[in-house]
Structure formats: C-alpha cells, structure tokens
Prior knowledge:
The chain has about 260 residues and is an alpha/beta fold. It has nine helices and twelve strands.
Amino acid sequence: MRQLLFNKSRFKYLRRLILRVSGRKPREPLRVELTYNIPLRSHIYIYNTGSYFYSGWAPNEYEVKRYLLEKARNLKPCIFIDVGAFIGFYSLLLAGEGCDVIAFEPDPRSFKLLMHNIVIIGLQDRVMVINKAVCDRVSSTIEFKLAKEPDISSSTTFLSEDHVEYRYLAPCTTLDSILSNLKPNINVIIKIDVEGGGLNLIRGGISTIERFKPHIVLEVHRTFDVSDELLILNLLKTYNYKWKILGMRDPRNFHVALEPPP
Length: 262
C-alpha cells in the first residue's frame, strides 16, 4: 500500500503541483475602458481572470448549452444568430464548433466586453458583432433601458423601474434585413435573449423563418401585455413549429426550443 501511494511518479506529480500552485502569482485586476457617449461609469475592473469572459452560464441553462451544441455539431454548414449576446458565451461556444456567428448586443458595456472576448479567444474571423437592437423595423431607434446589471438591460416592461440606470435610443434593425443576402443552403440557428422584446424581433424575421426554417432557442421573459413573448409560440405555430421547455428559472422566465417542421 505504501508503494502504491508514494511511488516515484506520484511523488513527482505532487511536487510539480505544489510548486505550480505555490508559485502562482495572483493576477492584477484588469481595467477595462468603456467608451460611449452616455453618463455611466467609464471603466470596470475584472479580477483574477485573463479573459473578460468570466461569468459562464446559469445552472438552469445547462440544457440550452447542450441543445445548441448538438445543433451546431449536426447541422453543417451553419450560421448562429445570437440576439442579446451579452459578453459572448454562446457566440464563442458555437463559433468554436465551426459555425459562423452574427452577434447582436445593444448595451454598450456588454458590447465592449463581447469584442474583447472575441479577440482574446482569437475568433474575430468567425464572429461578426453588431451594436444594435433587433426589432420589427429598420433604420430606426428603440428606447433601450440600461440596467444596473448589464445582463438584464431591456427595451420592455420586463425590466422594473428600480433597476433602470439610464435610458437611450438604441439603433434598431431586423433579422430579415441582416440575413437577406444569406445563401439558402445554410442551416440557421438563432438564440434570442432580449428581456421581453422577442415578439417584435420575430415579426421582423418572418421572411427569414419562411426561407430557412431556423432552429430557435428563446429565453422567455413574460411581460403579460401585448408584447408578451409567450405569443411567439402561437405565431410560430402557423409555420408548423413545435416547442419544448429546456430550462426554467421561474414561471415568468424560462427557455424554450422552437423546432421547425422536418
């Protein structure tokens, strides 16, 4: 037993591990400049990481990750449309699986980190980033509410007033206008996480849905009004889409997969 526990190879491994851990210096915090023309903090600090991509995903999103990876691996060639990309977790995940990516992020704070992450990982040739909201009209603007926590910024009533830090007019475009020149023989995967604005987004992407029959993952943020994202399920039913729940945070906030007809 003593020989099994303390043989030379194990001792060398433990010695290297101790030296590696004890000799590791803590990283200096990174100061990231956030340049935009709105009165918010001009920089943030990120600690103990060599990447700005530091938040990972919530436990209830495990099935979302698994579902998107499965689609990216089985549908080739593929393009991934990440609407509400935040700092790029899903964009980088699917770019790493060989998909070309178009990532939309209207919050200037998250957009800055998104661009840094793409460069750090070295995927700038595969990911195109667009600092716009996606809605039902082009060459327009939409009132966008920046939250104190950037991952919940929104253009809808889903964001309560006590979380709003600043309002500004974000440039807006549609899925149909962005994807109008896309070749018809490509597989399209769409992830939508727009804090309650998904219904107008889908209305501005009907031509895309008819042409490509994309696989869609939607994070539902219920507003219980005329823009309630649950209405998307009824809208896509007319195109023979079926849906299933991937993960639930609470009855007002959950992920669904929207599957096109075979």
